[in-house]
């Protein structure tokens, strides 16, 4: 298995996000704190350059699982 760079992980998660939601204000942001390792969150661009994170920070694998769950819910494959 090839280890992805941080930029490749962000690009992959961004593609997943764009397939799920077409809103251009949403994007994937990495943590600013290096102590937490490589973690990402979905964020929204606000006025004056501010950002608002919409999810918790997750690892690449956790974020992939999050998107898989969102796609499952969108396609109504799970009934509650």
Report on this model:
With 80 residues, the chain is of the alpha+beta class. The protein has one domain. Strand 2 and strand 3 form a beta hairpin. It starts with 5 loop residues before the first helix and ends in a 6-residue tail after the last helix.
How would the blueprint of this fold be written?
Elements: H1 6-20, E1 26-30, E2 40-45, E3 51-53, H2 60-74
Helix pairs in contact: 1-2
Protein traits:
single chain, 3-stranded antiparallel β-sheet, 80 residues, 2 helices, alpha+beta
> What assembly state would you assign to the polypeptide chains in this entry?
single chain
Helix content: 25-40%
Q: What radius of gyration results from the CA coordinates?
A: 14 Å
Mean pLDDT: 86
Q: What does the overall shape look like?
A: globular
């Amino acid at each position: 298995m090839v280890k992805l760079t941080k930029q490749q992980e962000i690009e992959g998660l961004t593609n997943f996000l764009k397939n799920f939601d077409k809103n251009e204000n949403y994007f994937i942001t990495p943590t600013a704190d290096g102590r937490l390792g490589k973690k990402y969150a979905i964020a929204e661009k606000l006025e004056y350059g501010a950002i608002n994170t919409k999810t918790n920070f997750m690892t690449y694998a956790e974020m992939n699982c999050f998107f898989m769950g969102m796609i499952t819910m969108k396609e109504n494959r799970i009934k509650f």
